[in-house]
Amino acid sequence: RLMAGESPAQGREVLADDDRRVERVLLELRLAAGLPLAVLTESERERVGGVVAKGWAHVDGDRLVLTRAGRLMADGIVVDLLD
Predict the structure, then answer these.
(1) Per-residue pLDDT tens digits for 17-34
(2) Which listed residue, 17, 28, 62, 73, has the most CB atoms within 10 A of its CB?
């Protein structure tokens, strides 16, 4: 394909805005720097305290950062946080 000047990609997926937001939360929450709280809606930010209380994360300035235990629970944390 490349030799013919074509893209090597077999296909692609175009995500809706909501799906892109979920993907962003899933990915950025796993980063060492954590997820900017501003990415979350007001109701989602209200749930952050529960995640912190369980010892799965802490708030560092304006970011939610997973603890070691939280990294093991990351998918479930995202489900709990998002509307």
Answers:
(1) 999 999 999 999 999 999
(2) 73
Alpha carbon 47 to chain centroid, angstroms: 15
- Three-state DSSP at 64 gives strand
pTM: 0.82
Please answer whether residues 41 and 35 qualify as being in contact, where contact means their C-beta atoms are separated by less than 8 angstroms. no
Pairing relationship of beta strands 35-36 and 57-60 according to DSSP bridges: unpaired
Sheet of 57-60: strand order equals: 35-36, 63-66, 57-60
Architecture of the CATH domain 16-81: Orthogonal Bundle (1.10)
